[in-house]
Structure formats: C-alpha cells, structure tokens
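Lab notebook: predicted structure, single chain.

Context: the supervisor wants predicted structures on file for every construct in the current expression panel, including those that have not yet been purified. This is the next one on the list. No modifications to the sequence; it matches the entry in the shared construct table.
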Amino acid sequence: MSQDLTSTQTLYNLQQCMEIAYKNNPDVKQSELSAENARINYDQSKGNMFPTLNAGITHTLYNGRSINPYTNSYIDQSNTAASYQLYSSVTLWNGSSLQHYMQQNELSYEAGKMDAQNSRDKLTISLILDYLTVLSTQEQLNIAEKQVLASKKKVEILELKNNDGAISPSDLYDMKGQLASDELTVVTTKNNLESAKLALVQLMNMPYTKEMQLAPISDGIVPQPYDATVQEIYDNASKRLAAVKSADLKVASAEKSIQTVKGQLMPTIYLYGGLYSNYSSAATTEQYINSTDIATNSYVLLNNVKNTVYSTQQNYTSLPLSYGNQISNNLNSQIGIGLTVPILNSFLYKNKLRLAKVAEKQATVQAQTIKIQLRQAIEQDYVNLNATYHTYLTLMNQVSYFEQSLHAADVRFAAGAITIVDYVIAKNNYDRATINLIAAKYDYILRTKVLDFFQSRSIY
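Prediction complete. Output recorded below exactly as produced.
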C-alpha cells in the first residue's frame, strides 16, 4: 500500500523522497519479488542434494474372488487390505550436475539482488531529476513573482506621472503590457511547477497535493570543475554499480549452467532403500485348544484279535490376526544401488547444452553492452557538466552586467532620459539572463549528483 502524505508534513527533503519512493514504487517492488523467486530457486537447488524420503499408504476393499495378501492364496469373501511404505533415495554422483546447478542458482540469486538494487538506482536518478526540476521551477517562480512586483511599482509610478501629464500615455500602456507579460510568466511557471510536483509524487507513488514543499539542496554549492576524470569515474562505477555486478553474475551463472547440463550427460549413481509392511482382514492365525484320540483305519493283531489304532489329534481354532501382529510379521526392507546411463533422449541434453552455450554468449554480450553504455553515459554527463560549468560562469557575468544595465536604465528612465521601450528591453535582458542562470545552476547540480552517484558518493 502506498504511503500517503500526512496532514502535518508538507516539507520533504531529497532523502525522505528517496525512502518513500523505494517503499512505494511498483517497479522496485517487482524487482524485489523477482529476487525472492531467485532465492527460492537457490534454496530448492540446495534441497536437491539431500535424500528424498516419502511414505505411502493404500487401503483397498475387495469383494468376490481375490488374493489374500497375507497368504498369497485365493479367497472368495469380502476383505480389506492395506499396504505401507517408507522409501528413500539419494543421488551419489551425476557428473556434479547438482552441485553446479546449486552454484548456478546461487549466482542467479546474487544477480537478482543486484537487479533489485539496480531498479532502485534507476529510480534514484529519475527522482533526482524530478526533485531538481521542482526546485528549479520554484526558484524561477520566485523570480517571476519579483518581476511582477517590480513591474507593478513601475505602473503605479507611471500612473501618477500620467495623471500629472508628465509622460506620454503610451509609456503607461507599454508598462502595463509588460506587467501583463510578467503575470503571464507567473501563471505559466506555476503550471510548470505543479506539473513538476505531479511527476515527482507519481514517481513516489503518492497522492498529489499542492501543499507539498521541497527542501533546497543548492545552498553552498559553488560550481567548479569535477574532481575526477572519466576513467576514474568509470573504474569506480564498474566496481560498485549494481547493473554491472548483475551482468557479471549472470555471465558466471550462465557458465555454471553449461557445467550443469554437461553433468546431465554423465551416468547417475543413486542409492535407494525402503521399509514395507501390509495388512489383510482375511488373515487368521490358529490357536491350540486341546488334544483328542481319534480312531484310525489301522489295526494291530493281538491274539488274533484286531485292535483299532488311535492317534492323537491337536485341535485348533481360527482367530483373526491382529493389526499390530500383521504389521510386525509382514515387515520387510530393501536397500540397493542403481546406475542410469543416458544413451538416447531425443537429443534433449545435447540441445540443452547448445542452448546453454548460446545463453552464456548472450549474457557476455549483455555484460559488455552494459559496460559500454555506462562508459558512454559517464562521458556524456562529464562533457555536459563541463559545458554547464562554463555556461554558468558566463551567465553569472551576464546577469551581473545586465543587472547594472537595468539599474542604470531605471535611473535614466526615472529621469526621463530613455523611453519605456528602452527600459523594458533592459529589464527583459536581465530577467532572461536570471532564468537562464537558474536553469544552468540546477543542470550543474544534476550532472554533479549523477557523477557522484556513479562513484557511490553521497547525493544528499
């Protein structure tokens, strides 16, 4: 849920805006979720190296002729049967594919974290630009409002002189026209300011409000040549920026992917074992009752008399075999070692290997591209910073000159030595130079902060 502006807080500094943007921006949240997915994949790849352990239970109801699982003989009655299994297996060796796969996912997870940081880095640059745009426009508005006040005072003075007939009425109307032009500049600048605020709060995923104010960050900043070369900035950025780290990690992950697939082309040795038992409601046991003597068909001659032979018979009764006895009596186990050799699998693994090699080349090209783009961005910003620096110095002199010219024109106009047109020209020259100086100042601040960001220097 996005963080709303509170009713008590209306002033925000750059760091506060950054923190809110990091928390609310959907692109940052999406990149963090992607990193979380990569972490889960990494955890699973570690889990793949552990033995599997599974249990199985089946219960079956039989009707009619079926096999008694206890005696393995046919019976013709309703009965229930159950079987229980606990089995495990573990891969002993598969060409180190599991180990390489775990390392591959670990690198992908680290790259995912760098991608999340890179998303914040991109947001940082955009937010600095929008923040400075608001400050620059606010300063331009302040200047425009001062120009309106100055023009109003001139109009008031000219109205008094016009009432006394001391000036031509056209001078008054020319000054009123200049006042209207200055007021139009204020209206336009206010609209630009609100548009700049809207862009900023939307980047922060906050509701728009006209009351929002930003703390200035230009106080004490004196434009000067940047204190590092392009090469120095690039060396620092290539070691610290998340985009470069992510690209290098993806190359390393792609290389591990090749090793993973190569391992899948090798034989796999695995160890397996299990514990089993079963139960049947038809299972019975014989319980001894007594012994009895039973006449047989045999006889013995004794004094020419046939005497019947008796034999002793053990008498038993059938009783259902208890569940616990069946489980313990039927308990059995197994353990074994197996070997699988990939021979022909529709060329699956060979093609996977080819794809892995292509992916590794793509990751390498992407990493090189990111470094090239980084260097080009640094070079462009460095050139722009130097140009802005010299522009700023020139504009400072221009403003100083036009300020003196405006002061002289003001004095001469008050003395009636020049026309209102000459005064307006001097005033517009000063106003235009002042606006240009403000724009150059904030452009210099922006370029400086971008280069500072590339080197992981503080931007606050």
